Amino acid sequence: MAASSRAQVLDLYRAMLRESKHFSAYNYRTYAIRRIRDAFRENKNVKDPVQIQALMNKAKRDLGIIRRQMSCAQP
After folding, report:
1. Less Cβ around it within 10 Å: N or C end of the chain?
2. Gap between the Cα atoms of 43 and 62, Å rounded
3. Average pLDDT score over residue span 44-71
4. 1: three-class secondary structure by DSSP
5. Of 10, 31, 11, 9, which Cα lies nearest the Cα of 20?
6. What are the residue boundaries of the Complex 1 LYR protein domain, all occurrences included (predicted)?
7. How far apart are the C-alpha atoms of 19 and 4, rounded to whole Å?
8. What average pLDDT score do residues 35-58 get?
9. What is the pLDDT of residue 40?
10. Of the candidates 43, 36, 39, 40, which has an alpha carbon nearest to the alpha carbon of residue 20?
11. Which residues of 15-53 are buried (b: 16+ CB within 10 A; e: fewer)?
12. What global pTM score does this model have?
């Protein structure tokens, strides 16, 4: 994985964890954090650039969903 691609993946990972920590319900928060960590660990050895890009696109969509959940949950 190229250095810039690695940095992008790490930035996305951190952003997803940061946003997930804002869930007010403990069960949702811990589930989201566990799923994010598991998914990134499961795919850490992927070398194919096309597959890496597809996984990053999915993670970006998931980050958008998390952010929408947070904006709807706040009064």
Report:
1. C
2. 16
3. 93
4. coil
5. 31
6. 7-64
7. 22
8. 95
9. 96
10. 36
11. ebeebbeebeeeeeeeebeeebeebbeeeeeeeeeeebe
12. 0.86
Distance from the first to the final alpha carbon of the chain? 42
Q: Which helix (DSSP H) or strand (DSSP E) does residue 27 occupy?
A: helix 26-42
Model confidence at 3: pLDDT above 80? no
pLDDT for 21: 94
Residues 20 and 36 sit within 8 Å (Cβ to Cβ): yes
Is residue 70's pLDDT more than 90? no
CB atoms within 10 A of CB 56: 15
Q: What are the φ and ψ backbone dihedral angles of 22, each rounded to 5 degrees?
A: -90, -5
